[in-house]
Amino acid sequence: MLKTIWILDDDDSMRWVMQRAFASVGYQAQAFDGAESMLAALQQQAAPGALFCDVRMPGMDGMQVLARLREQQPDLPVVIMTAHSDLESAVNAYQGGAFEYLPKPFDLDDAVKVAERAIQHHESQRAREHDQTSQKKQNPSDQSVSLGGIIGEAPAMQDVFRAIGRLSRSSVSVLLTGASGTGKELVASALHRHSPRADKPFIALNMAAIPADLIESELFGHEKGAFTGADKRRAGRFEQANGGTLFLDEIGDMPLAVQTRLLRVLAEGQFYPVGGHQPITVDVRVIAATHQALERLTEQGVFREDLYHRLNVIRLRLPPLAERRSDIPALANFFLQQAADELQVPVKRLSQAAIRQLQQAPWPGNVRQLQNSCRWLTVMAAGEFIEASDLPGDLFTCPMPSPNADEDSSDVGQWRLLLSQWLQQASQRALSEPAPQGILKELLPEIEQMAINIALQTTQGHKQEAAKLLGWGRNTLTRKLHEYNISE
Fold first, then answer.
1. Cys-Cys with 154: which of 86, 147, 324, 404 at CB 3.0–4.6 Å?
2. Residue 429 and residue 127: Cα distance in Å, rounded?
3. CA 266 to centroid of chain Cα atoms
4. Taking the C-alpha atoms of 12, 16, 21 and 25 in order, what is their torsion angle to the nearest 10 degrees?
């Protein structure tokens, strides 16, 4: 009886007006003044398409009814109605498994809209068994081809798996390339676990996340008194990784001076800590990763060519998510399970329509963006099953990156396309104004603010480094921070 709506409220007038409102749009509405009579009817009749339930009632209250229905009729959408519109009431309702929460007084048109959504949700449950069966046949998360936590049935990922297998008996250096979010650290970890060094340390360090003046100390350590604040000796990442693997992410951001020291370690297996006079000998396998085109950086003189050749013994390209769309269902199910475990909530599943939408999204942020989207859906999607309408709208606002371009050119092409679209919109707005002010006056401050924020994030708030990154003096950056009211 999916077109039937039940109303549970001890207020006669509320039951009457809601029955009339639902009947006016073609629903059969049945009303109850107490939980006992409603639960008894549920034993004798088919379940309705949705239940609108008040919270404060004599005898069993609405939250107790909700808990009972979660056990007896878990697929029944329950809309909680309450005069208490505070955050705690809403949270309690959703935590109890409510489909929706309506604070009284509410507009009857809003109640009708909620009823329509609840009915649609309940109808989709009827097709769920078929969806789940076909979904398992297509890409079940527990049957997906995976390696060390990396899921992938797409041909591009199978190439990665084969490369990891071929390298399993070797300790040769590997250079991982691919756009941000493609899983380079996961692959580096898998290379380590499937190598002769598997029982030794795996140490990861992101060059882009460390201020340039601290990278040398992070890599090679320092002796006591080497610089202000060095009150004790500290082992660097090379020493920590001795016998194992050191993963250097975003190697293209490494300063030239540090590149020279890294080259010596790779060639001789020795280094001096900052402030040290005795060399330290290590046996470390280096796996480097970048989203940049290192060949271009060597041509520009910002990356040493000899270091590039030393790192580029084996090159392994990780495909963007747009090149492995067949993996999206399995990846999404894995991330939904992961998010449910982290948040300690029931796992949510994807409808076939939602899967199709996910497979059509551009995914400029690649696997990391999909993982974050699954976390968002675990928290925000109303029902147990995720429909296409539940997906965040911003998934489809980014342009599709070119699959044939290299990482650098695809990133550049993407922001150029976004900028072009913004300029077109701004131009249309300007033409419609009686006295256009000029689109550059609107655009340039926006770009400056974005660049400042990104520079501060990249340098972890170090204004001197951020100013250098922007090509400004520190005073210019300070003035811009005040001008744009950007918090420091």
1. 324
2. 46
3. 35
4. 130
Question: How do strand 50-54 and strand 78-82 relate by DSSP bridges?
Answer: parallel
Task: Tell me which long-range contacts 70-73 makes (C-beta under 8 A, separation of at least 24).
Answer: 70/96, 70/97, 72/42, 73/42, 73/47
Radius of gyration of the chain (CA): 29
Peptide bond preceding 105 in cis form (omega within 30 of 0): yes
Q: How far is 274 from 469, CA to CA, in rounded Å?
A: 25
Quick check: 96 pLDDT over 60? Answer: yes
List beta partners, residue 246. 203, 286
pLDDT tens digits, one per residue of 159-194 = 888 888 888 888 999 999 999 999 999 999 999 998
Partnered with residue 147 across adjacent β-strands are 150
Q: Which two tokens stand for residue 471?
A: 């090509």
pLDDT at 231 over 50: yes
Domains of the chain, with CATH numbers? 4-126 (3.40.50.2300), 157-317 (3.40.50.300), 325-396 (1.10.8.60), 407-483 (1.10.10.60)
